[in-house]
Write a structure and sequence with these properties.
The structure is a single chain. It contains six helices and no strands. With about 190 residues, the protein is mainly alpha-helical. Helix 1 crosses helix 2 and helix 2 crosses helix 4.
């Protein structure tokens, strides 16, 4: 369940080289498919799904980094079960305030946070945010997910942005458990 997402891997790479995540994503896509001029990285499906755009990010990053363990970062290896995965992914990136805390954060963003029916961080039981609670802007797929992250628009700390979560119905809780189990099962198969 705690597999790092490709968006997080690209974000960490960008932070190391002091460039924007979208720039690393463009480079990955170009390495994977040189005929690609530009691509839109505004949808979460482009980063984490199982389509040509998300696969080009994965293959490009594998080529650039020499890593072969990045298949766990998206829905790529679960394609027999989830197809392209569009129905499983949330409409926008979601962040756990405790995971981005500068002192006790996890150091990466989890793939399971980006699944549609997962509303709380399974590690911290904290409600996930899909927007900055201060300025209201939705998080872009390339929002920084690492400890110390701030809103890319208003630059306020994301770890201070806790909200009270509503109690889930039995059906919503069942959906959340099913999606978390699917992700965990995929990680076990590939791990």
């Amino acid at each position: 369940r705690e597999a790092e997402s490709l968006a997080s891997v690209i974000g960490r790479t960008a932070r190391i080289y002091c460039v924007k995540s979208s720039r690393v994503a463009r480079l990955c896509a170009l390495v994977s498919n040189p005929s690609v001029r530009a691509a839109s990285y505004k949808s979460l499906d482009r980063w984490l799904g199982n389509n040509t755009g998300s696969r080009s990010l994965l293959y490009g990053l594998e080529s650039l980094s020499g890593r072969g363990d990045l298949a766990l970062t998206g829905l790529y290896k679960l394609d027999q079960v989830v197809g392209h995965g569009r129905g499983l992914l949330a409409s926008s990136l979601r962040v756990c305030p405790d995971c981005v805390h500068p002192e006790r954060g996890s150091g990466y963003g989890m793939l399971c946070h980006q699944m549609q029916y997962v509303t709380r961080c399974p590690k911290h039981e904290t409600p996930l945010n899909d927007r900055c609670l201060s300025c209201g802007s939705k998080f872009a797929p390339y929002q920084d997910l690492l400890p110390g992250a701030v809103c890319s628009r208003c630059h306020l700390h994301l770890w201070d942005q806790h909200r009270f979560g509503a109690e889930l119905s039995r059906y919503e809780r069942w959906c959340e458990i099913q999606v978390l189990d699917l992700v965990a099962h995929g990680i076990e198969l590939l791990g």
